[in-house]
Model the fold of this input.
Amino acid sequence: MPNQTDQLRQSCRRLLSEGTVTKVIGYREGRAPYHVSPHFATTPEDCDALVLTPFCTQNLVRYLRGLKPEEGKVALVVKGCDARAVTALLAEHQLTRDQVYLLGVPCEGLVDVDKLAQKVRLAEVQAVRVEGQMVLVTTAAGEQRFPAEDLLEDCCRLCQYPNPLVVDEMLGEEVTPRNPDGEDAELARLEAMSPAERQEYFRRAFSRCVRCYACVRTCPMCYCTTCFAVQNKPQWLPRTVGTDENEMFQLGRAMHLAGRCVQCGGCDRVCPVNLPLRLLNAKMAKEVQEAYAHVSGLDAEKPPPLATFDSQDRDAGEGH
Amino acid sequence: MPRTGVFVCHCGTNIAKSVDVKRVAEEAAQLPGVVYSTDYTYMCSGPGQDMIQEAVREHKLDSVVVASCSPRLHEPTFQRCVEGAGMNAYLMEMANIREQVSWVHGKDEGATEKAMDLVRSAIAKVQHNVPLYRQELPVTRRAVVIGGGIAGIQAALDIADAGVEVVLVEKSPSIGGRMAQFDKTFPTLDCAACILTPKMVEVASNPNIRLLTWSEVEKVEGFVGNFNVTVRKKARYVDVEACVGCGECWAKCPVKKIPSEFNAELGPRAAIYRPFPQAVPNVPVIDKENCIYLTKGRCGACAKACPKQCINYEDQDELEVIEAGAVVVATGFEVEPGKLYGEYGYGGHPDLITGMQFERMVNVSGPTGGHLVRPSTWDPKQEEGEEPKSVVFIQCCGSRDEEKGVPYCSKVCCMYTAKQALLLKEKLPNAQVYIFYIDIRAAGKGYEEFINRVQDEFQANYIRGRVSEIVPEDDHLLVRGVDTLLARQVEIDADLVIMATPLLARDDVQELARNLSIQTDKHGWITEAHPKLRPAETLTDGVFLAGACIFPRDIPESVASGGAAAAKVVDLLSKDHLLSVPTVSVIDEKLCAGCETCVGVCPFTAIEMVEVEDPRTHEKRKIARVNEGLCKGCGTCAVACPSGCPSLRGFTDEQILAELDALCV
Done:
């Protein structure tokens, strides 16, 4: 993405020098070629550090939380999923559109570092780029090509909306969605299970949860001032880490995200014990879509269906 | 340590027959914090309540559990009882060991154990209760009655007679409603207009009633005692104050062929029209869709004809906000227009009419001047037509037919069909009358006798069975049906066929119901607060019901319900102030993230967003706040909020969890 990076730096320098925004939130190089860190640019000079790589995983929308009007307009680098998160937050009145300047990046997908590590020695990686159906990895030994299918993050492999739907400025050409029809073989396998098998599948997974709450901390849609999981009065969840409590936490969180999750895959990525969180949230999203024809993050005017009352709503008891 | 008292009621043998009440009381006494526990035959009786009050004083109780019936029945009783002993009413909890235990479980089915569980749970809850206090709310001493049919008229008159101001809002140009369309009323055969007109005139002349005809309620905001009702006063194009109803305008109007709504489309009206001669107010309206001046900008015949210059083509709709303490919904019903049975072919033959059209035809002020004729032969110029010799009435033309979406009985058709048969035979004694019916439902004072009279004295032929089809043959209608009593096919050559079509809920009532936060059933009829014990009330405080908006009703029932609604309104508005119910939602402002989920799910629009400033940091943020007057304490917000900011007073998370812990642990 060198061209995109140049374009991004140029735009950000302009935005800051013209005073359109007070701050740019983007990415800069991280500790390795397969890592980036969030970057906050407040002067045109700061913009030279901005980068775009297939490792721009951190969902920067998190940084908009608590953004105050007096801080002025903030520019934000958004991929397709990030832009959906912004739209979903607009629908939930957590932001107003004039607080953010969205720099849209059509996204070819992010490379999963764990998957990459299985193909090459990470220490030897010099650069990685995604080109259509291939991922090109440069090492000292030269360039290696791998099918994108094998190296991309799950949510990127299955992404329906790689192009930001709402932007103030688009950087680069739009890309073709990898999965325009939203097909999901993993989800189909999950749905083929009997309810008992499905419960067993999730219970086994949740038994690994260490309740680090990294999923809560990374999720762009988790903005409660105090999460129900850590409330003391009443204490919904005992502090002990056991399968029952973990299940209550994970299912409670899935319910809270139903119709709101934008499938950015953040939770999957940060989970230290690899819980199938993307899958769980994808299942909830599908349920909501089927029941209420609602897809989160597409329309800033539409609040999540589970947060609305309409006397004309279909009675859940009738249709299911 | 709490000091809880437990009072277990036998309810005669209602509870005691399957619950060992003595054991429940004894075991309750062993629970933590219970300092007194007893049982008694009737806790709700005078001695029972004395016993509670005495125990509260003697044992210095700070909380009370009454194990008896449903709180729906006696919560107010026992709340008053403990208040009488100096306790806060909300420190009393009921354990329902009647409806939820003894009425559904036998002695051998663990009834006593379940009663014990419920009592233990109620004790756990009450020990987490805190005193709650009712707030005083102001009251506007004015009522709005929506709908000017007989029910609305009666309600308005009764409220006005009690000295309370009423605004009566009617959608059509005149009050009178359906009753004004009827000829005579069953079973006494009073002329409908003769008994209705004086009441209509009284409405117009009563100083406490303000009449807004040709007006519609657009929006209702606020809460009991403090509603703001927005009324759209539609442009009438005629000066209501100046007009005397002389009729020069509609005589000169060149547009004369518009089907008259009042005459059930059996006769025409002009573009400027007064629906019927006894209309109140006696002032016409201009139908803006059909008026030549208003559509094409030329004509002006009515303005030229008017001797008092009442016509104003520039008239505009006006919105007025009326402050009121109570609202009466008396919006009535619709008559199905005859389209449910395609095999009858309504609309294809002028001699196939509906019951409402028959009412208009038999009425002297109707389209035929009271001549009973075959509509196909009616000559309006000569004012004559051929009299029918063979007449078929068909009851249940849609009613009691699940297939047609009307599984219910429309209640009035058996009686009005009999009445119409009688009126017909009075005018045309030689005509043959056949009435197809499924069952005859004549439950009412003098109703059964009336049916008998129509059968015996007026010789109407009642045929038990249904009509399968109506086929036009030459100039008459061939009615094919079945007589199920004689088990044979029937064919009748009819000159005139009258269908008793179902009574339906009005389509437009749905929007009004949403506006008022009141419920409708699956057929669109408005739901009462309780079908037996609160038939004139809704679940929205301050909104009352009258007439057939609830379900088909005849005139006496509508009048009675109008009076009932009026009594409720007067009772409500006679108070200097109202007391709020404290068991409403309250939002923990510190926890609130301002996502507006609660605003979206609240069925009573009781939550609004407000901006608050942190006293320490002076940071401003938006949070949700509950309007306690509007909140009904349904708890939807408490469930929907992801971080649990709303809590329902009297049903807080701590209280519910304490109950659950006591049940499950």
User: Anything to note?
Assistant: The radius of gyration of chain A is 20 Å. Residues 316-320 of chain A have pLDDT under 50 and may be disordered.
